Fold these 4 entries.
Entry 1:
Amino acid sequence: MSIFHGVAGKRTTPPLGVCFHNDAGSKNATCGFYSSWLPNHEPAAGFAHYYVCSDGILQAEDEKYKAWHCGNSYGNANYISIEICQSMGDIEVFINNEKNAIQLARRILTDYSLTPNRDTVKLHQDFALTACPHRSMEIHGGREPAREYFINQLVTPTTPKKKGEKDMQCFYTVDGSPNVYWFNGDSVRLLTHPDQVSILNRIYHDINGCDIPTYAFTSSAPWHKRLIQATVCEKLSASDGKIG
Ligand SMILES: [Zn+2]
């Protein structure tokens, strides 16, 4: 499995986390490319444990060995390195590789009983003066936002949400009118056909395992107006925050 056979030495203590890289390779820098290129590559020029590409994941070094991946002896010794490949190619391909790299990182952190956080999720820039991981930082808005994205992605799927928590939705009527309104979690819409209620509820049920809650509001207790006010207020404050 290993291409480099422990050339950088064996790790004496368990790894402290993962380190993400972007390979600065073109759309052709796939596993097919790396599997033929790496064996002829000078290890001292740098190599990572894993290369995540559109055609799969290539493991170039066993996890029990170090890798010369970040130009820093502490980082090389303590972090398992993941190259997110094809970083100079199509954005969709790169983003998909990034997602697969995060899945790989999740497996690694789990294997070593590590929790995703700033200490366990590193970027190449944490250890050396480099543009790496350039594409991830470009997409996510800088080094810390990129790290935050990785950590959030690593944490989120392991924290099951309560049913409906992610998509807070409801139907409601007002004063007994046949008009049905749909709050989609962001804004309110008047539905113009009963089938719209049926199909929205069916999809919601398939995803969440329960129906969209339905309320009958009245003008004497106008919760529907409060709902709209709350939605609008939220939007205003979000936009204020951006300006500030
Ligand atoms: Zn790097």
Entry 2:
Amino acid sequence: MFTQGIILVAAVLIPVFDIFRFDISELKLYLLRQVWSFAPQGQYMSGAGGDPVNFIFKGIIPFILLFVSLPVWGAVLGRFLCGWFCPVGTIFEIGDFFRRNLIRLKDCRHSSRSENKEPHWAICLYGSLSVILIIIALSIMSIFFAGLIIAPSEIWRQISALELSPLFIATVSGIMILIVGTYFARIAFCSYICLFGITQTIPAIVSPFSLRVGFDTNRSKMCTNCKGCERACFMEIKPRTMVKKVNPKCINCGKCITACEQELGKKNGLFYYSFGRGEIY
Ligand code: SF4
Ligand code: SF4
């Protein structure tokens, strides 16, 4: 969670530090603090001393290198990068956390139906707070990501003066809808749409030595059927019951490992990381 939090904060700050943004009013692409202007000014490059070759080496090639390295990451670590570093996955996990609390609001209305050990007031409080927090978190994230097409200084000016332009409102609303829509399609998105994910998945499936999460079938009788591993899995895999040797949806996040250790004790869980094909669910 620590690495995911750091990467998510870095991701929302990307436009603030001109790492990547396309300023729609200036028609300029900011990439790694260098500028590619699409305005017809006769001179297309600024930044980096106006040197296009420098721009390509510093701005374009690092992204190409990152992308072509993904199959290698996949062959060695499976979808580890998705599980530990992807900011989109982190947003989905935050959404999942709120969704679980929202679902508990049903128990708040019908206290007699609650199977939870928590006090009734706590369920109601956390459920209600999650409604408020999800709106705040979604708004903040959408405003930051709006910086991808509107200059962050302009966003700050509009918010502080309470003069929200139609472009700002449309952009923030569009990003909110996109985040919510993608969240509901998150399994399909992570498994079949995200190019970064697919680029790692295929080598991870064919690689004979990539990192995977295994289930210790020899000790499976110790399973208490608490279903903690299923609840922890944001990709909605049922880790105990998978029969395939390699599950292409698994992002090696290790949350099932932690959940099982919480139930059975540290170093006593039934899931483990291992390299190679081994005894993998
Ligand atoms: S099966 Fe385990 S490691 Fe794989 S995605 Fe689910 S929780 Fe993460
Ligand atoms: S978390 Fe461990 S003990 Fe609980 S259901 Fe999953 S495998 Fe069984």
Entry 3:
Amino acid sequence: MERYSFRSRGIGLEQGSCFVCGQPQPPSLLPNICAVVNVSERERVIKMFDYKARAHASRNDQVIVCACKDHERSLEYLHVLSKISMLTKADVNASKVAPYV
Ligand SMILES: [Zn+2]
């Protein structure tokens, strides 16, 4: 399985759609991760999130992943994971369900 560098800079607030349920919540801000990735891998990282992540508007080495309040723990899971390992599609899938089983 392909692994990509994905280093969370922490959890903040951004406009966007939840990467788990897809729920857009404008104009309110959602919890988000801004993560540093390899520029050459950025599009593949976004694809790994089924395009529910997006490129940072001005930093092309960063991607933004948002979650709604119901799925904030999925974001925390990703944040912690990004501190200890590279990211795989299996990790993304696990983050969507692991906090709830
Ligand atoms: Zn959600």
Entry 4:
Amino acid sequence: MHPLLEKDHQQLIDLIDALDKCVLKGNSINQATKYLDAFVTLAEDEFKNEERIMEAYKYPEIIDHKKEHVRLLEQLHTLQSQLSKGQTPFGKDYMQLLRNWLETHLLDTDNRLEEFLYQINADSDKKNR
Ligand SMILES: [Fe+2]
Ligand SMILES: [Fe+2]
């Protein structure tokens, strides 16, 4: 993980694991809400952090990357509002979708940002030599 992207993606994955298990076991809505809320807070923080970095370094893919963040947050906020109305909106399929989506973002979209940041470092090292 690049030092600038300090928030740990692993934490996001761990929380989605916890939520997934919670849903599979049919645990209470309260429990699911707790995990979902923690996940959303962490994701919002993490996305903001990345967006600040992308702006600071004039990352060329910033618009598309931000769009993906917005899309994931929309899905998450929909889940939150359904849960708050006492609905249990996530079947196994939905959780799978969310997980795949998140992992694709982390492995693909975030990875490209990370490579870009390493490239900048390498370039400025060369200049300073
Ligand atoms: Fe990320
Ligand atoms: Fe991202």
